[in-house]
């Protein structure tokens, strides 16, 4: 079962107006969350457009799939903010807006007379969310930020990769997307606070801060032990067995969090003697003998197939999963059951994971063509 467009009905953010000056990923991901839940989002692009429109192939009707994935439910407008006419149009939109979200390099809006102080004075109820690489000040203040560079700088790569190998970028733009999530949370917090104060405020969200915030449990471990975390591959630094294992068909990931689950795993594998081994009695012992434990379990798991064994283990209360690829995940029956794929014509996308019973979010309109709604908002 795939999700269909939601019926025209009030959503959680119906009546909230958002001016979206963001491009690429972190900002557009944030504004799509708001748009999915009913906010009127005006995506104002420069004359050259959001560069991700060209980040293909693959393309869907001349627009890159990358762009299509994070820009649904928005109005598509174009304005040249380097001109006075463009800035006057923006001011007119802000006069009736609740939220401004932008990811310009710090100092750009100030150069145009639209800095945070000017905006707060002109629009005291406006919530102004600025997404940047490093914030406006400090040793790296004002410098541009990029997901992969943030992963490298902020330690994420240093704990991601196989032991004995090289630090590796996480295979998806996790910093950009978490920054978008934090920006959406910040906007909702500010909207809630405005109900009592009547005032807007400035929200400072940086890729750097959001990347640092992801360092759990590595930062707490370092604070407690003074030991610099390193590469452990799929293995968890604090728990064993908590990693992937080869099977007769594909990889199996085990996420054993306590002694009871470990005993259940061994029982389901027909090897209760493994749980009784003094080397594996509790988590501290299993960590101390991680290599021997991995070798022991690998020899047993080599006789099984990953997918059916994972199903058996999960139903017995043992956390386990086959290591699926993207196609396998999207075809999974539970993905269909949870309606996590939206389809409308040639448009297919991941649905919102935020499910509300009375005011559901979802697809209301397709990602806009470049400047599609200009005429509707008085632009040529």
From TrEMBL:
PANTHER family: SUCCINATE--HYDROXYMETHYLGLUTARATE COA-TRANSFERASE. Keywords: Transferase. The lineage of its organism: Bacteria, Pseudomonadati, Pseudomonadota, Betaproteobacteria, Burkholderiales. It comes from Advenella kashmirensis W13003. GO terms for molecular function: CoA-transferase activity. Residues 358-380 are annotated as: Disordered. The keyword Transferase applies. Pfam families: CoA_transf_3. SUPFAM superfamilies: CoA-transferase family III (CaiB/BaiF). This is Carnitine dehydratase.
């Amino acid at each position: 079962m795939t999700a269909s467009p939601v019926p025209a009905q009030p959503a959680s953010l119906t009546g909230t107006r958002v001016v979206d000056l963001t491009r690429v990923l972190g900002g557009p991901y944030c504004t799509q969350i708001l748009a999915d839940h009913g906010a009127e989002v005006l995506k104002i692009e420069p004359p050259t457009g959001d560069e991700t429109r060209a980040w293909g192939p693959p393309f869907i009707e001349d627009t890159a799939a990358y762009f299509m994935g994070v820009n649904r439910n928005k109005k598509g407008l174009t304005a040249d903010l380097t001109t006075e006419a463009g800035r006057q149009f923006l001011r007119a939109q802000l006069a009736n807006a609740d939220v401004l979200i932008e990811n310009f390099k710090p100092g750009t809006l100030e150069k145009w007379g639209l800095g945070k102080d000017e905006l707060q004075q002109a629009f005291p109820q406006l919530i102004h969310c600025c997404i940047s690489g490093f914030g406006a000040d400090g040793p790296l203040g004002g410098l541009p930020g990029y997901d992969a560079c943030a992963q490298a700088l902020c330690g994420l790569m240093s704990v991601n990769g196989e032991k004995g190998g090289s630090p590796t970028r996480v295979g998806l733009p996790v910093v950009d997307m978490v920054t978008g999530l934090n920006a959406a949370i910040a906007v909702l917090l500010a909207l809630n606070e405005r109900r009592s104060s009547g005032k807007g405020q400035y929200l400072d969200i940086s890729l750097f801060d959001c990347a640092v915030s992801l360092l759990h449990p590595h930062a707490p471990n370092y604070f407690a032990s003074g030991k610099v975390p390193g590469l452990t591959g799929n293995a968890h630094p604090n728990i064993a067995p908590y990693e992937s294992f080869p099977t007769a068909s594909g990889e199996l990931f085990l996420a054993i969090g306590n002694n009871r689950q470990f005993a259940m795993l061994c029982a389901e594998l027909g090897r209760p003697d493994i749980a009784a081994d003094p080397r594996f009695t509790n988590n501290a012992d299993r960590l101390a003998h991680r290599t021997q434990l991995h070798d022991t379990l690998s020899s047993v798991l080599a006789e099984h197939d990953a997918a059916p064994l994972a199903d058996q283990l999960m139903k017995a209360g043992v956390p386990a999963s086959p290591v699926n690829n993207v196609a396998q995940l999207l075809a999974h029956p539970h993905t269909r059951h949870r309606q996590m794929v939206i389809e409308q014509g040639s448009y297919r996308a991941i649905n919102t994971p935020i499910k509300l019973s009375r005011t559901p979010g979802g697809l209301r309109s397709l990602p806009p063509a470049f400047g599609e709604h200009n005429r509707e908002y008085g632009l040529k």
